[in-house]
Amino acid sequence: MIKKLLLVLLTLISGRLVYAQHQFTTIVKSEPDQKFLKGVTVTVSTFGQAITDAQGRAQIGNISSGAFAVTWSHVGFITKTDTIRFPLENGQPIEVYLEPEEEAMEEVIVQSTRTSRTISNTPTRVEIIDGEELEEKNNMRPANVSMLLHESTGIQVQQTSATSGNASLRIQGLDGRYTQLLKDGYANFGNFASGLSILEIPPLDLKQVEVIKGPASTLYGGGAIAGVVNFISRTPDEKFEGDIMLNQSNIGQSNIGGYFSGRGQKMGYAVLGLLNLQKAYDVDGDDFSDLPRNNNFTINPRLFFYPDETTLITIGNSLTVSKNTGGDMHVISGDDRDGHVYYEKNETFRNTSTLELSKQFLNKSNFRLKQSVTIFNRDLTMPGYQFMGKNINSFTDMSYLRYLANHTMIGGANFIYDQFEQEMSAMFDNRSATAGLYFQDTWDLSELVKLETGLRVDHVNYRNNNFKKAQTFALPRVSALFKWSGQLSSRIGGGYGYKTPTLFTERTEGMQYRNIAALENVTAEKSVGGTADISYRTNIGGAFSLSLNQMFFMTHINKPLVLEQISETSFSFVNAGQPVVTQGFETNLRFIFKEDLKLFLGYTFTDARATYLQQNQVLPLMPKHKLNTVLMYEKEDNFKLGLEGYHTGTQYLYNGTKTPSFWEFGFMAQKTFGRFSLFVNFENFTDERQSNYKPVVSGPLQAPAFDDIWNHMEGRVVNGGVKIKI
């Protein structure tokens, strides 16, 4: 009897449970053409997901009674979220219409986070430079990426030498040594090459540039305190691709370059070649070069092997040879009479060999092995002085990417070896070896919230002839993405970082490494920092769109490595007792009318301070205010016109002098005739330059003194050329 009662009771309970579960059916179409959308992800909060079929239909079952959030998302369309109460009144499928995105930016796959996610679903804040902006800046300076980065919000290209033109990259007010430069994910720049790195990266073969501002330590370790800039190269398609560029400017620069790629069933190739010739240029007539004479050649072939559909092997070798001579114009031209003796000559040789293996498995997980070796030789020569050295860098990284339910996880290990050997002297010889383990998890809590957490542990040994030290660093990092609606989202993130001691800084580069003592009894700099932003976008009347991004940042560096003057002619590095603190915000506005007329506004406020200083604590050569404006009108595959204006606020020099603020303006035009495109660019057409305010060079001809560089040196630049698609 009891068994029968239990059986009846279980039947009633199970029947009640079945009755309480409901099914949800939806049909998704695009707006306004009302076509069925295949591949839309439909999510019912806590009850699961489904993907729409060719008829735009998706079903999700076993939904309890109550009100739950339902989200429809698809690449290239605005995500839609609604609250639906179950059971449905009529049980009929719910039709939903998704509006297409005005910009294709949402479809960009971010490579720097290594998770193969679109930019709209990545918790880490990543800025992408691609498409027309990349092409526009390539027209201005085909030789290198300095112009591409100089005019980006929150980034400053800082020239470190008045005669050689060497420069470094600053993000959010911090010196260039705190930014990690990558080419296709390889960390082959920095140290002895740091003052020349961005001058030896050509933009012609770039697909996009990815910028992570703030600490990016989990995947990239030491040196990524201020951020990471990853230059992503184009890869071959099945269709042959060929681009040739010819450029000439009024300042004596000539450029000829080409990029060619193609792919067969089992093998592909890509080749970049670029020759840059720059004549010595003296715009202010003081007999000293404002631009050095430079001959630069780059050749970068890559081979791609496809043994099967899931395996890719890439082998590449990049060679750059450069000869750069600045200083007294008479000496450069070969006439060194009447006391004209001063010059600064840089001869460099950079060769980077790379190997990458990528293997994808049935569950879409991926194993990747990357290996690179870079040899960088540099010979710096001045009257009565020579500094020569060889920098060898080896980078090995092995990682495994795995997808599990709502998690994207990546773990790996890498080893970095860096060695510098000084020619004719061993005073500056040094080496470092870094072994690291890292793990990162990106968790899709829902369509609205995504959380990314990571941890890296690095063990570093570094030494020179004076001392040696071993340190271990634990570097946690966390970031989160909140999609409040299809129009409003925000990101917040932060983490720890470190930088091992180096004597190759912006300051020592400007001093040509003279009168500097070798490192002794110094320790690594440690940092904590973070960023937070909010993004909003909307369409007005179908023809006008508005995008706004407001970002805040903060970085705190403990025991910063500081160059102190020991005597009138002697300098030494020490760890300061008080931190470097930088904080501020960036505001970016974008207005687009009918996809043809575009207005971009960017403002950066940076408060960067060295708190160890007794009086003026503002970091030198860092403007507190910077404004970027760009107005662009374009008819695709026809023509484009652009007008730019940039305002740089006041700065402090190393001697405490305050500089005036200044504006600079530029104009560009391009016309396309089938496979040919003609372009012309008027950069800084108002002739804004430092020598308009005060002579840059002072003192005797035999031993001149140069001011800190805080403005343009070359003044007005007019260039033009032709691009040919084969």
Can you put this structure into words, describing what you see?
The chain is mainly beta and 726 residues long. It is 6% helix and 56% strand. It contains six helices and 41 strands. The strands form eight sheets. It has a 22-stranded antiparallel beta barrel. It has a four-stranded antiparallel β-sheet with strand order 3-2-5-6, with no helix packed on it. A hairpin with a 2-residue loop joins strand 22 and strand 23 (385-404). The longest helix is centred in the first third of the chain and has 19 residues, at 2-20. Residues 5-19 have low confidence and may be disordered.
Work out the number of β strands: 41
Q: How many strands, what sense, and barrel or not for the largest sheet?
A: 22 strands, antiparallel, barrel
Overall outline? globular
**What's the level 1 CATH class of the largest domain?**
Mainly Beta
Cα-atom Rg, whole angstroms? 28 Å
CATH topology group of the largest domain: Maltoporin, Chain A
Regarding quaternary structure, what we see is single chain
Task: Provide a short characterization of the protein structure.
The chain is mainly β.
Task: Give the helix/strand layout.
Layout: H1 2-20, E1 22-30, E2 41-44, E3 48-51, E4 57-63, E5 66-73, E6 80-86, E7 94-98, E8 109-110, E9 117-118, E10 127-130, H2 131-140, H3 146-150, E11 155-159, E12 167-171, E13 179-183, E14 206-213, H4 217-220, E15 227-233, E16 241-249, E17 253-263, E18 267-278, E19 293-308, E20 311-327, H5 329-332, E21 343-360, E22 366-382, E23 385-404, E24 407-422, E25 430-444, E26 449-464, E27 468-483, E28 488-499, H6 506-510, E29 525-540, E30 544-558, E31 561-567, E32 570-575, E33 580-593, E34 597-610, E35 625-635, E36 639-648, E37 662-673, E38 676-683, E39 697-698, E40 705-706, E41 717-725
Parallel strand pairs: 1-7, 13-15
Antiparallel strand pairs: 1-4, 2-3, 2-5, 5-6, 8-9, 10-14, 11-12, 14-15, 16-17, 16-41, 17-18, 18-19, 19-20, 20-21, 21-22, 22-23, 23-24, 24-25, 25-26, 26-27, 27-28, 28-29, 29-30, 30-33, 31-32, 33-34, 34-35, 35-36, 36-37, 37-38, 38-41, 39-40
